[in-house]
Amino acid sequence: xxxxxxxxxxxxxxxxxxxxxxxxKLGDAADKPVNINKASVDDLLAYDVLIVGSPTYGEGExxxxxxxxxxxxxxxxLPTLVGADFTGKTVAIYGLGDQEGYPGNFVDAVGFLYDAFxxxxxxxxxxxxxxxxxxxxxxxxxxxxxVGLVLDEDNQKELSEGRxxxxxDSISSAWA
Length: 176
Hints:
Rossmann fold; alpha/beta; 3-stranded antiparallel β-sheet; 9 strands; 6-stranded parallel β-sheet
């Protein structure tokens, strides 16, 4: 059984809470979640299976210094992936966004993570349907599917638990 590494970026703590929930649900299959601002590329490469998460801030921004955060996050980390080889690694992505407040760039950060890890050679798993969401545009879409799990804790919090559980079930073969 492969050990799952969980890495997240956050400012308000909501993405960290989801990471902790994922770790609890996975039990012994997962290591303790790590904030990406405390990780290196080598830390990620130590795992065969990764679950990575990010909120989307403002007008489609990754969390980080230019988004007005006090600490570095995905914005500063993603450039360090350039040249890294994630071939043979499996990555599942989750993201938080606000489809009503930001319908023109809903969960764009999920798309940024997808592009970065796919460009580094990772196999991406965990696509989910865009049905049940109302938004205009998202960089996280590939056809009519999101490239990962999408949670809207602002407008659809009551759906998050079911969406998360179904998603984890759908990707569980990655670490079994």
